[in-house]
Design goal:
About 30% of the residues lie in helices and about 0% in strands. By secondary structure, it is mostly helical.
């Protein structure tokens, strides 16, 4: 099973200087989008309730990124 999630918005970066309300709105929207994609993939209906996860980060551009922000 594979679920591809969108890259988080810039407002959720630890280095962003966004207003708390803007950040909260972006987080709520992003969580909702990720939860919807996960449900559509059928992850919540696994038979034994166990889940092994492998993460692969694919940034939207070729800029260098540090692992702390991944």
């Amino acid at each position: 099973m594979r679920v591809t999630l969108p890259w988080p918005p810039a407002a959720l970066s630890p280095n962003a200087r966004a207003h708390w309300a803007t950040k909260a709105r972006a987080a709520r929207t992003y969580r909702h989008a990720c939860a919807t994609l996960t449900r559509k993939a059928g992850v919540l209906s696994l038979p034994d309730g166990r889940l092994h996860v492998t993460l692969e980060f694919v940034p939207p551009d070729r800029r260098a990124r540090d692992r702390d922000n991944m």
